[in-house]
Amino acid sequence: MSNPSVRPSRGYHPLAGLVAARLREFLREPEAIFWVYVFPLLLMVALGVAFRNRPVEVFRVVVCAGPQAESVQRVLDADARFRASVRGEDEGRLALRTGRADLVVAAPADLKPRYEYLFDPTRTESVLARNTADDVLQRAAGRRDAASVDDRPVNEPGGRYIDFLVPGLLGMGLMGGGLWGVGYAIVDMRIRKLLKRYVATPMPRSYFLASVILSRLVFTIPEAVLVLACARIFFGVTNHGSYLAVLLLIVLGSFTFAGIGLLVASRARTIEAVSGLMNAVMLPMYIGSGIFFSTERFPEAIQPALVLLPLTPLLSAMRSVMLEGMGLASLVPELAMLAAWAVVTFALALRWFRWT
Amino acid sequence: MSLAIRCAGLTKTYDGKPPVEAVRGIDLEVAEGECFGVLGPNGAGKTTTIEILEGLLEPTAGEVEVLSLRWRDRPDAIRQRIGISLQETRFSEKLTVRETLTLFRSFYRRGLEPDEAIARVSLEEKADAWIKKLSGGQKQRLAVAAALVGDPDLLFLDEPTTGLDPHSRRQLWEILSECRRQGRTTVLTTHYMDEAERLCDRVAIIDHGRIIAEGPPRELIARLGGRHVVEFSLQSPEAADLPAHAWQALPGVTGCRFENGTIRLSVAEPHVVLPALLAWLAERGWKLASLVTRHASLDDVFVALTGRQFEPKEETEP
């Protein structure tokens, strides 16, 4: 890394020097590389695989033992979407309750075909199994469709969970990187009295704060590119908007969270204090800003509070660009909210910052 | 001769319950080219004083001029011309010595080449080593190099050798003596009296936030009334009852102190005192348990002034 023959020229700018020092320190810290670059990728792969969208799987149906049981089983098994087995009703209920069956069909011995469906209305696959099985059994019983229907399956990238997740992970990386990268580093330097040593030099204090934020930006862009590239290679996630818009959002998000990191670290004197503060700041956003699932799942009443969190507008803007191809012009409210967070936190941090 | 530092009526009170008066009225003048030592036990107010001079702390009251400038008028002009080594700074562990000094060099308009600063503190072999790999003494030399890299007119060193082993201390003393030979004004704090005697043109001894003595080390020692000390203890317990003036009656003795059974005489000429002392003891039939003669030191000055013993001379960190 350091070549003795390379000597910096005179007039080497202090800001460049400070940024270079931060970059060197970061690159020489293998753990930091892992958490910043490798961890988000692992998370993406794990979540992308766990929640991959699959064609609806085979429904597991239990047919309650009885005189009609075998004929019902035969009808269902003839359809590739079902795997039916004949068992007692109690056993069927247990299987349904524990998620090992999607549907229990009982066929009381009547003259006319009559079926009872036991299903769980809160489970999507259970409801689907009920409707599909009903359809198949009704046709077997002689129902004729009144209208002709053409099925045209659509499975375009853009609507899958992974497409939703990738912008979320980008935002999460910006938040975590900004807070940990800035907050932890600053408190560490304060403890080591390096901040005090710096203010004893003629280096302008604003250069130091600017160097922390700029170096964040330098770490962030490769991190985002890596996530986007892997998402594309492994999951075919594409960006429906412009990459310039995504880049601008990353830069703005990175400033915002670096500002919040500065503010969180502006007074803390111990690593414990700053860690606690950072967790307190990040936890609401991990849950409420829509990293892993849409904020629409939260009740209407708390929506206005969620919008105030800085990560919420960032993710919403990022998804609007990447998933819907919207331009930045239509995202002015989100951008304004982010910029306001960046400016206010940076100004407060400058004011409160404790150097010694 | 113009002054590098002038301060008057300096006080610093830290808020708290009760408030802590760390500095209670200090007046100092340091001439250009001088090596000035601020001495005192831990907690005497040395670091607070030097940090006020360095512009890192605001005094509660008092006037400070550094290089004829005031902190509130020209802070950047002062910072361009001073070099500082704090009592404890842990530089970034994963940067090399050269990288660290290059960074610090970039903060100053003029200064030494980083390699030149490395050579001044004899760290050439470690120039490309990570700071993490340096020993305590090497880290301290790096701190001095970081103070020198801006080629300062005035150098502040806060306890540059505290916690170092004797060999590292001597290495650092050589570096500091070289700075002194180059005529760079230096202010250093220390709680090692021998260090001050060796390095400083003048010292101020601080105790409880006040200067209790000031002057060239030799002069302070001479004020004791003798440049030599005869220290002895006796096997006979009844000797302890003898008052100080009884010992001072011996020819050539200018002062007498007792400490833990040891009797310490300040003397101008040991060769006059010793025969008289031995004859006097023989008359009474008292036997010596120990006898040492040595040059008087600043420790003796401190003890004479405060009646308290100074800290152990050699301190090594656990």
Give a description of the structure.
- The complex is a heterodimer of chains A (356) and B (318).
- With 356 residues, chain A is mainly α.
- Chain A folds into two domains: 21-50 and 157-352, no CATH class; 59-140, abc type-2 transporter like fold (3-Layer(aba) Sandwich), CATH 3.40.1710.
- Helix content of chain A is 62%, strand content 5%.
- Chain A has 13 helices and four strands.
- Chain A has helices at 14-27, 30-50, 69-78, 89-97, 124-140, 161-191, 194-199, 205-235, 243-265, 271-288, 303-308, 311-324, 332-352; strands at 59-64, 82-87, 103-106, 116-118.
- In chain A, strands 2-1-3-4 form a four-stranded mixed sheet, sandwiched between helices.
- In chain A, helix 6 (161-191) packs antiparallel against helix 12 (311-324).
- The radius of gyration of chain A is 28 Å and the shape is elongated.
- Residues 1-9 of chain A have low confidence and may be disordered.
- Chain B is α/β, with parallel strands linked by helices and 318 residues long.
- Chain B has two domains: 3-221, P-loop containing nucleotide triphosphate hydrolases (Rossmann fold, 3-Layer(aba) Sandwich); 228-295, Alpha-Beta Plaits (2-Layer Sandwich).
- Chain B has eleven helices and 13 strands.
- Chain B has a six-stranded mixed sheet with strand order 5-6-7-3-8-9, sandwiched between helices. A four-stranded antiparallel sheet of chain B has the order 11-12-10-13. A three-stranded antiparallel sheet of chain B has the order 2-1-4, with helices on one face.
- Chain B starts with a strand and ends in a 12-residue tail after the last helix.
- The relative contact order of chain B is 0.14.
- The chains are: A mainly alpha (356), B alpha/beta (318).
- At the A-B interface, helix 1 and helix 7 of A face helix 2 and helix 3 of B.
